[in-house]
Amino acid sequence: MKIVVVGAGVAGVAAAELLQRYPGNRVTLIEAKSQIGTGASMDQHGWFHMGSLYSIQSLEESVTSAVKNVRILTRYYESYVNQETAEPGNRNRNTWFVDEPISYLFPGGWHLPYDVRQGAYSKELDGFLHFSKDIVSAGAALGQLLKFNRVWSGVKIVSSDLPMRTKKILDDLVCSFQTNGGDIRLSSKYLSHGSTAAGGVKVTLVDGTTVHADVCVVCSGEQLASCGWNAHRLVVRRSPIMVVTPALCNENIVVVEAKDHASFSHIVHSHRGQRYSVVSGAYSADVGDEEGSHRAAMLLKQVTRTHFPSRFDASSHELYFGTKVDRLHREDRRDYSPTIVELERNVIGAIPGKFSFAFLLAHNLALRVMEGKDIPSSTALSGRRDTAMVATPKHELVAAALLQARRSLQMDRDRPGYKLDEAASNLDDVRSAR
Ligand SMILES: Cc1cc2nc3c(=O)[nH]c(=O)nc-3n(C[C@H](O)[C@H](O)[C@H](O)COP(=O)(O)OP(=O)(O)OC[C@H]3O[C@@H](n4cnc5c(N)ncnc54)[C@H](O)[C@@H]3O)c2cc1C
Q1: How confident is the model over 240-285, as pLDDT tens digits?
Q2: Which numbered atom of ligand 1 lies nearest the CA of 205?
Q3: What is the spatial distance between Cα 290 and Cα 433, in angstroms, rounded to a whole number?
Q4: Mutation choice for ligand 1 from 30, 45, 187, CB with most ligand atoms inside 8 A
Q5: Which end of the chain offers a freer environment for a tag, N or C, measured as fewer CB atoms within 10 Å?
Q6: At a CB cut-off of 8 Å and minimum separation 6, what does 37 contact?
Q7: Packing angle, helices 10-20 and 166-179, rounded to 10
Q8: Could you tell me if residue 172 is inside a domain?
Q9: What's the superkingdom here (predicted)?
């Protein structure tokens, strides 16, 4: 079967990779930009949702999706997830996940739906997550325990969610896709499509070339939203993310506040051995709403300062926006479940909801396109790799510039003006690269 996948974010890459595993399939992955993963997939903060948070919050559909997603990961991607390098001292750098769990903090007064100490939700997640951490809970003076500036009390849950190495995941999927015979066309923007007399699809690109296929899968939420497919209740929002160096603290934490307050997430990543914080919160604005975006950014800064006043003020930070596309599900509630919509005959739209859920999305898509035929396994990881083909996560680019700016300042205190200009121009480069 000939299949065209439009959009090489995690959704398109994961879908294309699974579809290309079937003998006889010929998948063409079309990406508008000159690299893979330059959209939301590289703007995000690298937090892989195994489902812990959703289950604590009783988001039933989300936790069901997360559990299915993890089952799919262990079933179809085992060799990828556990990949290790023989290089001494480098053992962890090649795995998809960083082996440092994400803790959820529930400040005092927040009423949990049930007693987490009974491990009420762990039964859903336990048993098949051989790479997960145990789920435990503890009551403590959390602020002091975590060396926060803020003093509070509540419950801390060490979850099975983990930070992810986004680029590593995409590098492996792309390598497998190409080794299995998949075709990638970069700098190729989808413009329109039509049906052919034989019942297939003709996809026209902006440069006028066409690609013929039996099925076309559109894996770009923004493209779907801008194409009049908004009847499917797509919501496009801009959301700020802030990179802070040095890291504000060494733990991955998500502060889950009471309903009226936005939650706050803090994930630690590293660049060349230097740890930095990637912080975010439930702040967003409609695309085009400059005032709302500014407000969201200010709120994120404010809440970061509330949690770490002295460390935040002594740090360097830089903020950028990512664009999220979600679909409203029942009762206007976001449940983050992946969405697959039949747009027309042989034309399918697909949105993962979360980077983490792209595996469930790809699995469901593959079974739908291949009419339920079992997905073949793939261990095609030893093929030729062009790591420059996949973009670097935005937070890493920003952190690299911030770290370099800090280093320059330290190295040449006599000429701070010159170095500050240089640091500012590094950051300008990062900003204008977008
Ligand atoms: C600020 C922020 C933080 C987030 N944090 C997390 C997180 O921590 N964990 C998590 O799991 N999820 C997170 N998410 C959500 C996650 O990033 C997205 O759900 C996921 O990356 C979407 O993947 P995608 O492949 O659908 O979209 P994208 O990555 O945006 O891919 C779409 C691709 O389609 C291409 N494209 C667009 N139009 C065309 C066209 N006409 N022709 C060809 N190509 C086209 C684009 O260039 C792009 O490469 C976050 C999102 C944001 C914005």
Answers
A1: 999 999 999 888 988 887 666 778 999 999 998 899 999 999 899 9
A2: 42
A3: 20
A4: 45
A5: C
A6: 8, 9, 10, 13, 166, 167, 170, 390, 391
A7: 30
A8: yes
A9: Bacteria
Judged against a pLDDT cut of 80, whether residue 159 lies above it is answered with no
For the CA of 326, the closest atom of ligand 1 is: 19
Residue 382 belongs to some domain of the structure: yes
Query: What's the gap in Å between 138 CA and the centre of ligand 1?
Result: 35
Q: Are residues 405 and 370 in the same domain?
A: no
Q: Report the nearest-CA residue for atom 15 of ligand 1.
A: 354
Query: Would residue 39 count as lying in a domain?
Result: yes
Structural domains of the chain, count? 2
Spacing of C-alpha 52 from chain mean position:
16
The ligand 1 site (C-beta within 6 Å) comprises: 6-12, 30-33, 38-41, 43-47, 49, 189-190, 219-223, 239, 241, 280, 322-324, 351-356
CATH of residue 352: 3.50.50.60
Ligand 1 midpoint to CA 40 (Å) = 3
Residue with token string 């085009």: 288
Residue 351's domain comprises 1-46+164-233+328-391
Residue 422 lies in a domain: yes
Side-chain-side CA neighbours of 241 within 13 Å: the count stands at 24
Measured in angstroms, how far is the CA atom of residue 220 from the centroid of ligand 1?
A: 7
What H or E segment, with its residue span, contains residue 341? strand 339-344
Atom number in ligand 1 closest to CA 30? 43
Ligand 1 binding pocket mutation candidate from 96, 220, 280, 334 (most atoms within 8 A of CB): 220
* Per-residue pLDDT tens digits for 97-107: 888 888 887 77
How far apart CA 258 and CA 243 sit, in angstroms, is: 25
Say yes or no: 357 and 417 in one domain.
no
For ligand 1, the distance from its centroid to the CA atom of residue 169, given in whole angstroms, is 14
